[in-house]
Structures are given as C-alpha cells and as structure tokens.
C-alpha cells in the first residue's frame, strides 16, 4: 500500500521540496507499514476531494479496528506478554548483555531496584558499579554520566522523576547537547537520559512536569517518548545504540500497560512516528499517555461516523514530518493532542512546523489541545481538568470537521 | 504552608528548600529582626549540594537542620555519601550532632543554635533519628531496609515518648502505678480526643465540595493585574468543558 498523493497537490509539488522531509536513510515511500487499511465506502480518489460535509451526510462507517498495530508483532504468533516497565527492563538488560560499556546510574536504581522497578534485578546480575546507586544530586551524576560517555562508556542515566532533571538542566544543555559541536566532533556523548514524567495521579505540581517542552530547544539531543511496551523496549534499545544523546520520556501512568511483544530481538527507529489507526477525515497527532485518551475518543468518533487517523509521533525531536506530511496531505485537517502546556510545548512546535511545511494542504487551521498553563493541582478533579480529556478531543474533531 | 505561623512549607524537589530558608534568613538580617530561620532537610537531600558556601559569607542567622534517619528512600546514608557525618559537612560552619529521639536534647540544641545564629552566624544541627515507616506511600516499610525486630527494638529503646516516661520514672517524679493510672486516664482521654479531632477533620474534608473548575486558574498570578492565566499569546484561557 503506497501513500496516496492528493491529485491537487501536483502543482504544489513544484514549490514543495520533499527533500526537506526525507530522512537520509529513507529514499522511497514506506511500503506495507500499516497492516490494516480501512476501506472507505464510496472511495476512489474523488472521495478525498469532496467536502467532508457531503461525506458526513453519507454516514460512512469506518470498519477498521480502533487500535491497530502497524508492526507485525502480534502476527508472528509467539511472543511473550509483559508490562511496560518489564519491557524497558528487558531492553536494558539485553543491551547490557550485548555491550559491556553500557551502565546505569541513578537514584535507587541498584539495590532498591528502581523506583518504578525498571532496573529490578540488574544490580544483582551486573554488580554495583555497573548499576550505580548515586546520591541525590542530579546535576552531579548527570554530569558524571556525560563525562563517562565522553571517554567510551554508554551510561543510561535515570531521573527518578523527570522534574528532578531540572536540576541537571545545565549539564544536559551545555555539556550533553553542545559538547559534540564545540569539540569539533571529537567527543561523542552516547548517553541515554530517561525517566518518568507527565501528570500522574495527584502527585502534585512539582512531580507532574512535562520536561519535553523545556528540553526541545537544546541543540544536539534527540527526544523520544514511548507509549506501549513494544515501542518502549524498541526505543530503549535504539537509544542505547545511538551515538547521539537521547532523552527517553516515559510516563508515570503507563508503566503497568500490558502487551505481547516478540521474542526475537527488534529495535524501533528513533525518528519514526507510529501509525496507530489509519483514517481519512482528520489527522490526530499525539504521543505518550495522550495516545490512550485519543484512542478512547476515537471509539466515540467512529460511532459518530468520523474516521480519524491517529499517529503517535514518538519522536519529539526531530519530528517525523515524513509520516506526518503524508497524513496531512491525505486528510487536510490536523488536531494535535498533547500533555504539555499550551505555551511552548511540543504541540506548539509541531503546529509551527506543520503550518510552515504543509500550509497548502490544510483545509482548516491546525488545532492543538494541550494542558492548561497552570501548575498541576493536587486536587483530583482540578488535575483532571488540567489535562486533555477524551470528551474535549471529540468536540475538537467535530469542530474541525464541520 | 502558613504565612502567619512562620511555617514556609515542605517542597517537592529534594534540597530545593534550603536556599529558600537561607533567603528568609537573609531577609531577617536585612530587616534587622532578631529572628532565626530553621531550614530542614534530610540525609538524602544533604548531597544535593546547594547548601553551605554562601551562608557564611554574610553570617546569615540560619540554622540548617539535617534530619538523619539514615535512609534516603531506598539508599542507606553510608551508600550515598562518603562522609555520613552531616554535621561536619559545613567545614567552617560549626555543627552539632544531636540525638533526635531525645526531646530535651533537641530543645537544648535548638536554644543553643538560636543564640549562636544570632551572635555568630550559621550552625548545622544533625538530628540523629529513625524511620518507622517507609519514605512515602509508594515505599512500604520492611520492603528491604528494616525488619520488624529492628523497628520494635528502636521503639523500645529510643522512642522519644517512651524515653520521657522512663526519665519520669527513674527520677521518682511518679511511681510506676501513678504513672500508669495517670497515663491510662490521660491516654484514654487523649487518644479519644485526638482520634475524634482527626475523624472530625476527615469528615469535614470529605464533606467539603470538590473545587470548581474556575479554581484551576486562581493564584497563578497575583489577582487584579490582568488575566488569570495566559500563555505566550496573552490569550485568556479558561478550561472549556464540553
């Protein structure tokens, strides 16, 4: 299945430089990336040109599943089921087995097994020096990890909560991000900085921060966000193998997700977005926990006759504008659902990027649903109102698809 | 947190409150109040590194209190620091190690510390104490650090309240029987009263209505100076619930 290029875009192609989008390793359109493709009744390329109000009145019912897995993991038959934190642990353990330079450092990662059990059992297996319990000084041990990376080790630095990494911002920005550049390429920093972030269940303002919005400006780093056990393990392994510093954003509420993942070894591409549910009416871009809110809203939307295309962008820096672009060219409407604050979040950057690159393909302004610009309240009800809920997503889609 | 009782609150990021405490001491010195500030932190936070260098420069009337319960959530203090003598950390800042489980010792130490802070400058108090329960809701006790015997042992020997009871007995201020009767009466009444107070408070809290959505935006900025909450584009944003 090849991605369809809208007929009307032929003239626009001359001004539009596809080279801007294509990652160096990718030279052709992705074939067979989505295993399930929804069949739109009354399809044909004209359908996409008709206004959506006409299609809506025809009450098309998309018959694809609400959540489809693009990769072939579930179709290989064998596999093992585990929780997300176990998937992370598996990925970490496999990489540590494979390469003796990989080590872990963080607070309570060793004997305690990690505050979210991601490093459970690793200290017993690999020893105290390879799975290092550090004192509570984020700035110091992040700097230490970066220094170790400069001389050949591949540390995985764990922030017990992403909010604590604010104390290490100096190290991450100045040393981690910039050293490769300022040293003229002499020093590589193959470090992975990971930790749980995002709004949890009444954790309070200081422990519910979304650091991806602060880190996204730092040149020289890559940011990825995992959302399922499958991509958690794949992204962890890819991040460790990468020669660039990678920040892996996990989410406090997603650690107990269960999924079946393949037995054989696999890694996920660090710069690729994941097609969660192909569709025709609107592109919904999301990542991390909001993916699940979006999929919940998608159920409601499908019942109402809409056909949303849901993409988990996964790569927060750089964006996979290739996948996103193809989707925008198909649906012409974009809704971004994120957990960052409205000001300066990932959604804000993504809106700018889409407007800049795909303006001609948009039928409606890009809408971005984000958290409110307030410190996350402790009260449960207020906390719910801070983040985007599925009902708001449904309303936004209905508004965009008028 | 309460402004009128001079309690400036606990803080989420470990160690972040110590510079705040020093700031309060700075303001006290600036305004020439004869007051001191107690900045409290734990043995885990002692390694965060935002502590000593500057408070001596200006002889701020601050007392840094390190509550050393020997465990920073999961990691023992000897595994988190080469020198777990937190009272010596200050180098040129004098430090005092106090048995934190002895109420009288703590009282005397604080009195001394206040005199010292007002006259000479900062001082560190390390309160040696013990942790009966886990660090937080997500860290159950007995997970790996303490055993039940350990805890009951400490409760018998070092528990502050038990210790005072022993002192009272050993100095013949009251006989065992008197104490027992007194305590039985007092305890029953006290416990009942305390329990009632707590239950009342819980009931009151549960009865209170949940906050309104509009409360989401209160106190983000100081009232009366424009919008309640705005982003970079100065749009006034309110939560729009469908």
Automatic annotation (TrEMBL), chain A:
It is found in: Plastid, Chloroplast. Keywords: Chloroplast, Metal-binding, Oxidoreductase, Plastid, Potassium, Pyruvate, Thiamine pyrophosphate, Transit peptide. Residues 82-257 form the Transketolase-like pyrimidine-binding domain. It is an enzyme of class 1 (oxidoreductase). It catalyses: N(6)-[(R)-lipoyl]-L-lysyl-[protein] + pyruvate + H(+) = N(6)-[(R)-S(8)-acetyldihydrolipoyl]-L-lysyl-[protein] + CO2. Its cofactor is thiamine diphosphate. SUPFAM superfamilies: Thiamin diphosphate-binding fold (THDP-binding), TK C-terminal domain-like. It holds the Pfam family Transket_pyr. Tetramer of 2 alpha and 2 beta subunits. This is pyruvate dehydrogenase (acetyl-transferring). It comes from Brassica campestris. The lineage of its organism: Eukaryota, Viridiplantae, Streptophyta, Embryophyta, Tracheophyta.
From TrEMBL, chain B:
GO terms for molecular function: oxidoreductase activity, acting on the aldehyde or oxo group of donors, disulfide as acceptor. Keywords: Oxidoreductase, Thiamine pyrophosphate. The keyword 4Fe-4S does not apply. Its cofactor is thiamine diphosphate. InterPro entries: DH_E1 (IPR001017), PDH_E1_Alpha_Subunit (IPR050642), THDP-binding (IPR029061). Residues 4-213 form the Dehydrogenase E1 component domain. It comes from the Eukaryota. CDD domains: TPP_E1_PDC_ADC_BCADC. SUPFAM superfamilies: Thiamin diphosphate-binding fold (THDP-binding). Transmembrane segments: none annotated. It holds the Pfam family E1_dh. PANTHER family: PYRUVATE DEHYDROGENASE E1 COMPONENT SUBUNIT ALPHA, PYRUVATE DEHYDROGENASE E1 COMPONENT, ALPHA SUBUNIT BACTERIAL AND ORGANELLAR. This is Dehydrogenase E1 component domain-containing protein. It comes from Brassica campestris (Field mustard).
